[in-house]
C-alpha cells in the first residue's frame, strides 16, 4: 500500500457518544487505508467530551473537556462535530469555519435551523461544510442530491427518514399492538431515546426534510418551514383501518416542487400516511430508512439502508472526512450552498393531499348522502366508499381524490359535527397509487 508522506490532516472530534466513538474506532482501525485514499495520514488531534472518565475505549491523552480550545487549536485542519443540538455546536462550528477549518457534521437539527449561517461562514473562509450523516445515516443521499443530480431537475423527494418511528409503526402493523406498547419496546431495545420526543413528534424527520428540500430545490428551507405531524396520535384502529384497505401506515417526509399558474413553489411536510402494501416504501421495516427521488431526466431513484446507529452513521461521517481531507491535500473545495432558486414554501393548507376517513355512523337512509354532501360542499371529490352495516350502526370508510389539505381538513371538521356521525374513528392522509 502506498501512503503519501504529506503532512497529516489533523482532525478535532467533538463528541464521543454513539456516533463519535465509532468515528474514533474507524479512524484508528482504517488509518492506513484512509491515508492511502486521502494522500496523507488522517490523525486525531483531540476528542472533546463532557465526561472524560466515561470514555475508556479511546486514548486518554486525546480526551479534553476544553472543546473551545480544541476547535481553535492552530494544528487542527478539520472539525468533526457529533455532539448534536443547537448550542454550543453552532458557536463552535462558526468559529471553526471562520478560522478556515473544514467541518463535517451529523447534526440535522443545527443544519435545518442555522444552515445558511454556517454556509456563509464556510464561504467567507473557503472552508468545506459536509453533512452526509445528517440525513438517513449510512445512506449516501445528500451527495447524490448535491452532486450527482446537480444537472437534473428534481421534482419530488419522499421517504422514511426516521428509524425509531418506522420501528414503532412496523411493530404496530405486525402485531396490532397499541402505540404506547411499541414505544416501550422501542425504548427497551435502544431504538427510541429516553426522551423520544424529537423522533415521535416528527422534529427529527422535519429537520431532515428541510435539508432534503433545500438541496433538491436549491432553496433555503428551515425546520420552521416544514409542516410537522408525529405518530403519537396513531391508534391501533388507524393501523387496522389501513390494513383492511391493503395499506400500511408510515411516517413520511415529502418534499415536492409545485408548479401552479406558471409559478413555482415547494411543499415540505412530515406526517403519517397510508401507503399501499405494494408500494416499495411499505416493505421498509424496523429501523431502516428509504427515500425516493424523482427527477425529470433520471426518473425514479430509490435509496435504502440503515438510517441510524453508531457504525452506519460513522460510515457517512468518514466518507465526508475523506472528501474534505482530500480537498485539503490537493487543494479545492466541495460544493457550496446552492439556494439560487429561492422558491416560496407553500403553507400546508395548499398542499394537495388525499384523505382516508373512517366513521361510525347511524345505519339509516340518507346518512351516506349527508356525508357525501359535506365533501361536495368543500369541492372534495370522493374516490371510494365502503360501508359495513352493524345493526343500528355502520362503519363508513371514504377515500378522497387529491384536494387542498385545508379543504379536506374543513370537510372532516364539519362531518365530525353531524348528528348522524357517532365517531370519527380514523383520519389519515393517503400517498401512493391506489392498490
Ligand atoms: P450521543 O449523545 O451519544 O453523544 C454526544 C457526545 O457529545 C457525547 O460524547 C458527549 O460527551 C458529547 N458532548 C455533549 N455536549 C458536549 C459539550 N458541550 N462539549 C463537549 N462534548 C459534548 O449522541 P449521538 O452520537 O447519538 O449523536 C451525535 C450527533 O449525530 C447528533 O447530531 C445526532 O443527531 C447525529 N446522528 C445520530 C445518529 C444516531 O444513530 N445516534 C444517526 C444520525 C445522526 P459525554 O459522552 O462525555 O457526555
Ligand atoms: N433518531 C433518529 C432515528 C436517528 O430514529 O432515525 C438519527 O437521525
TrEMBL record:
Which residues are recorded as binding NADPH? 108
Its EC number is 1.1.1.3
Named in its record, the pathway it takes part in is:
Amino-acid biosynthesis; L-threonine biosynthesis; L-threonine from L-aspartate: step 3/5; Amino-acid biosynthesis; L-methionine biosynthesis via de novo pathway; L-homoserine from L-aspartate: step 3/3
- Amino acids binding L-homoserine: 193
Looking up InterPro entries in the UniProt record yields: ACT-like_dom_sf, ACT_dom, Asp/hSer_DH_NAD-bd, HDH, HDH_cat, HDH_CS, NAD(P)-bd_dom_sf
Q: Report residues binding NADP(+).
A: 14-21
Alphabetized GO MF terms? homoserine dehydrogenase activity; metal ion binding; NADP binding
Catalyses which reaction(s):
L-homoserine + NADP(+) = L-aspartate 4-semialdehyde + NADPH + H(+); L-homoserine + NAD(+) = L-aspartate 4-semialdehyde + NADH + H(+)
- Cofactor(s) needed for function: a metal cation
Q: What class of enzyme is it?
A: oxidoreductase
Supply the alphabetized keyword list.
Answer: Amino-acid biosynthesis, Metal-binding, Methionine biosynthesis, NAD, NADP, Oxidoreductase, Sodium, Threonine biosynthesis
Active site (catalytic residues): 208 (proton donor)
Residue ranges occupied by any ACT domain in the UniProt entry: 356-429
Indicate the family of this protein.
Belongs to the homoserine dehydrogenase family.
- What exactly does this protein do? Catalyzes the conversion of L-aspartate-beta-semialdehyde (L-Asa) to L-homoserine (L-Hse), the third step in the biosynthesis of threonine and methionine from aspartate.
Q: What is this protein called?
A: Homoserine dehydrogenase
Amino acid at each position: 500500500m502506498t501512503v503519501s508522506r504529506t503532512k497529516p490532516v489533523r482532525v478535532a472530534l467533538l463528541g464521543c457518544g454513539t456516533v463519535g466513538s465509532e468515528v474514533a474506532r474507524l479512524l484508528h482501525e482504517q488509518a492506513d487505508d484512509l491515508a492511502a485514499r486521502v494522500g496523507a495520514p488522517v490523525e486525531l488531534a483531540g476528542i472533546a467530551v463532557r465526561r472524560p472518565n466515561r470514555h475508556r475505549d479511546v486514548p486518554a491523552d486525546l480526551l479534553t473537556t476544553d472543546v473551545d480550545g480544541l476547535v481553535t487549536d492552530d494544528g487542527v485542519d478539520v472539525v468533526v462535530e457529533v455532539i448534536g443540538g443547537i448550542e454550543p455546536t453552532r458557536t463552535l462550528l462558526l468559529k471553526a469555519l471562520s478560522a478556515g477549518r473544514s467541518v463535517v457534521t451529523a447534526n440535522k437539527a443545527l443544519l435545518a435551523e442555522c444552515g445558511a449561517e454556517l454556509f456563509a461562514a464556510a464561504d467567507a473562509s473557503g472552508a468545506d461544510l459536509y453533512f452526509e450523516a445528517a440525513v438517513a445515516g449510512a445512506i449516501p443521499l445528500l451527495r447524490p442530491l448535491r452532486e450527482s443530480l446537480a444537472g437534473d431537475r428534481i421534482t419530488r423527494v419522499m421517504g422514511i427518514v426516521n428509524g425509531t418511528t418506522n420501528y414503532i409503526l412496523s411493530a404496530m402493523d405486525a402485531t396490532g399492538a397499541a402505540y404506547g406498547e411499541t414505544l416501550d419496546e422501542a425504548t427497551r431495545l435502544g431504538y427510541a431515546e429516553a426522551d423520544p420526543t424529537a423522533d415521535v413528534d416528527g422534529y427529527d424527520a422535519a429537520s431532515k426534510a428541510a435539508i432534503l428540500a433545500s438541496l433538491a430545490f436549491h432553496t433555503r428551507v428551515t425546520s420552521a418551514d416544514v409542516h410537522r405531524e408525529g405518530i403519537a396520535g396513531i391508534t391501533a384502529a388507524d393501523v387496522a383501518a389501513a390494513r383492511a384497505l391493503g395499506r400500511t401506515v408510515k411516517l413520511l417526509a415529502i418534499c415536492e416542487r409545485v408548479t401552479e399558474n406558471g409559478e413555482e413553489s415547494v411543499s415540505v411536510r412530515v406526517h403519517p400516511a397510508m401507503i399501499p402494501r405494494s408500494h416499495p416504501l411499505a416493505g421498509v421495516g424496523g429501523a431502516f430508512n428509504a427515500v425516493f427521488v424523482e427527477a425529470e431526466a433520471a426518473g425514479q431513484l430509490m435509496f435504502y439502508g440503515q438510517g441510524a446507529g453508531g457504525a452506519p452513521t460513522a460510515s457517512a461521517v468518514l466518507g465526508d472526512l475523506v472528501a474534505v481531507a482530500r480537498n485539503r491535500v490537493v487543494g479545492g473545495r466541495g460544493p457550496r450552498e446552492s439556494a439560487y432558486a429561492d422558491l416560496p414554501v407553500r403553507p400546508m393548507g395548499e398542499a394537495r393531499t388525499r384523505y382516508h376517513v373512517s366513521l361510525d355512523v347511524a345505519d339509516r337512509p340518507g346518512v351516506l348522502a349527508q356525508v357525501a354532501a359535506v365533501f361536495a360542499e368543500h369541492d372534495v371529490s370522493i374516490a371510494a366508499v365502503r360501508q359495513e352495516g352493524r345493526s343500528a350502526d355502520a362503519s363508513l370508510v371514504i377515500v378522497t381524490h387529491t384536494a387542498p389539505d385545508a379543504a379536506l381538513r374543513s370537510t372532516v371538521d364539519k362531518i365530525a359535527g353531524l348528528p348522524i356521525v357517532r365517531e370519527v374513528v380514523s383520519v389519515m392522509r393517503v400517498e401512493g397509487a391506489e392498490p
